[in-house]
Amino acid sequence: MKVNSTELQNNFGKYLMLAAQEEIIITRNGTEIAKLTSLENHLQDHGGTINQVHENAPLYGYGKKATYEEFLQLWQESDERYEYIDGEIYLLASPRTAHQYAVTQLITAFSNIFQGTSCIPMVAPYDIELRRTPEQINIVQPDIMVICDLEEKLDEYDYYKGVPTLIVEVLSKGTRRKDLIKKLDLYMSCGVKEYWIVNPDNKEITVYLFEEQNIQEFTTYKQNEIAKSYLFEKLKIEVQRIFR
Q1: Who has greater pLDDT, 54 or 141?
Q2: pLDDT above 80: residue 23
Q3: Which structural domains are found in the chain, ordered by start?
Q4: Where are the beta strands (DSSP E) in the chain?
Q5: Model-level pTM greater than 0.85?
Q6: How large is the greatest C-alpha to C-alpha distance in the chain, in angstroms?
Q7: Cβ atoms of 172 and 55 closer than 8 Å
Q8: Beta-carbon count within 10 A of 194 CB
């Protein structure tokens, strides 16, 4: 199928769905300039598999950001996991062993530390809706989040509609830029109070404290040190315990 660039821009959601079935050639002034194809077909053409997709590769790459409605349509019609950040959609690829090991160690420690308190640690996949403004909706799936107002912020469909107090992201090669830049700014701007970035490659944990939409303090903890929360006095974890 061929479609001109103006038609594509005006009906992007429609052609995104059609691209799952057939290749779409994009033209400008009668000249072919780009190709819209399914992710699976692209990987097969290059000898890859769907599991090799990195998490930071945007699904929308033709100069037009996706609307929230387009994201919802994709989310409802697909079995894949996605995030929606500042108008762009990101595919969440299957994590590697080092990532999952760190998440498992952290959620175990968090669960023990917060047991019997009003704060509940949760683990992905679990959609969190964050808004920079009432109109700017973002949907993320943090690796771990600590929620201290769960019962107060559940809607009638049992979805949480608040802002976690603390969020943890474990870096991977595919998510590094998104977690270090995009998500840090998003969490800081939307009311998250503390952000942990866990780096399995360097075996480090950096803890950020946010106040008034700014970085108030941050500390990086290395091997043989104990990572400490700014907000929760009892939240202390040996860094070397988190990594393989």
Answers
A1: 141
A2: no
A3: 2-91 (3.40.1620.10), 97-242 (3.90.1570.10)
A4: 2-4, 24-28, 31-36, 82-85, 88-91, 120-123, 128-131, 137-140, 144-147, 166-170, 194-199, 204-211, 214-221, 226-228, 236-238
A5: no
A6: 66
A7: yes
A8: 22
